[in-house]
Write a structure and sequence with these properties.
single chain, 367 residues, alpha+beta, 13-stranded mixed β-sheet, 8 helices
Length: 367
């Protein structure tokens, strides 16, 4: 048991199954663990090149709002909605995942995936980490891995084509995140559920029916989903959406009325706001489930203000979920060493072609 004192609030390492009563059934499917182990067995004795780039890369994040949904033409108005904290003890739960590339073998790539669930209960933050789960992804097994994930979690056809190897790490991570969100939606009751990202649907790993089902399950149990985007590409009349709150007095939401939403395969299932919830330089895109009445959605944000700690307009529960899921450089080194020893891999270091050719002018990434 580890206790840390931050902002005069207690953070407690959570033993297994030490959930609130409503979350006790949240368990990791055995097939997920078996899939991880089975993918690792097919690389025994291969060459292994640890990925040095992993130490400089941030954890993979979900940029679901890459496709703009706000129009830049036509009349619109911006309404500032002042907020007042509703003090109480509303349960708050947050989910986040991270995935990172560990290295390469002769036949594929090695990656690790980890998820974290954080919830606040009576001024105490508790968390559960799931993982890290290593995966060895090759051209031979990628379709099996991908389709089993999709079939097991989303009950879709197993005939879906798997993405390229370079995209499998992100795709598997996104699929795990959807499963964790589903678990929380089924377990929590009359709570606020925080997602990292947006309520955009229509992408390969966020089908409209899947995201709609997650939101419906949450609503049926009187939960409200609030999705915070740390970055957004959305612009309104040429201005970044989050910049619109620069002169607003917190805590408040900015509601954009009258903008057109273009039709297409990718669109949002939430009402889009700009959230400036505390003093400071930060504001965020906030999506609230469209099928939740507007008054109830605003009330959920006010309950969040009264129930959770917010720093720079960002909920502490979601911040901790990000921290507990993210891989550190020390952890990556430990995972690499363990995998090499466990599976008898022969470590090699291939020359960096870009450094050999361009010296100090070589870039880490193709650009």
């Amino acid at each position: 048991m580890v206790n840390l004192l931050i902002e005069q609030l207690h953070y407690t390492t959570t033993p297994r199954y030490n959930f609130p009563q409503s979350l006790e059934d949240l368990q990791l499917p055995q097939r997920f663990i078996e899939l991880s182990l089975r993918s690792m067995r097919n690389m025994e004795g291969e060459y292994f090149q640890p990925d040095e780039m992993a130490f400089n890369q941030p954890a993979t994040e979900n940029f679901e709002d890459a496709t703009p949904v706000l129009g830049t033409h036509g009349p619109f108005t911006i309404e500032s909605i002042p907020l007042k904290p509703l003090l109480g003890d509303t349960p708050v739960a947050a989910v986040d995942i991270s995935s990172i590339k560990i290295g390469e073998t002769e036949t594929g790539i090695l990656c690790a995936i980890r998820g974290a669930i954080v919830w606040k209960e009576k001024s105490r933050y508790k968390y559960l980490r799931l993982g890290p789960f290593p995966f060895h992804i090759t051209e031979e097994n990628k379709k099996e891995i991908y389709n089993l994930f999709r079939h097991y979690y989303f009950e879709v056809s197993a005939d879906a084509s798997a993405p390229s190897l370079i995209n499998m790490q992100t795709r598997i991570g996104n699929l795990l995140e959807r499963w964790l969100q589903l678990g929380i939606s089924c377990s929590a009751h009359d709570s606020i559920i925080l997602w990292d990202g947006s309520l955009t649907a229509g992408t390969a790993d966020s089908p409209v029916n899947v995201v709609s089902q997650l939101l419906e399950i949450a609503r049926n149990r009187l939960n409200t989903v609030l999705a915070f985007s740390k970055t957004t590409n959305l612009r309104l009349s040429g201005h970044r959406l989050t910049d619109l709150a620069e002169k607003s007095k917190p805590p408040c939401l900015l509601q954009i009325n009258g903008f057109p939403i273009p039709s297409g395969p990718v669109f949002t299932l939430g009402n889009v706001y700009v959230a400036k919830l505390t003093r400071g330089v930060c504001s965020f895109r906030l999506d609230i489930d469209k099928k939740v009445p507007l008054e109830r959605g605003i009330e959920a944000v006010q309950k969040l203000l009264g129930s959770d700690l917010l720093i720079q307009s960002y909920p502490e529960t979601l911040r901790l979920a990000h921290i507990f899921s993210t891989f550190t450089a020390t952890e990556v080194i430990g995972i690499q060493r363990f995998i090499a020893q466990q599976y008898g891999l022969r470590i090699i270091v291939r020359p960096n072609v870009r450094r050999l050719l361009f010296g100090p002018f070589g870039k880490d990434y193709e650009g």
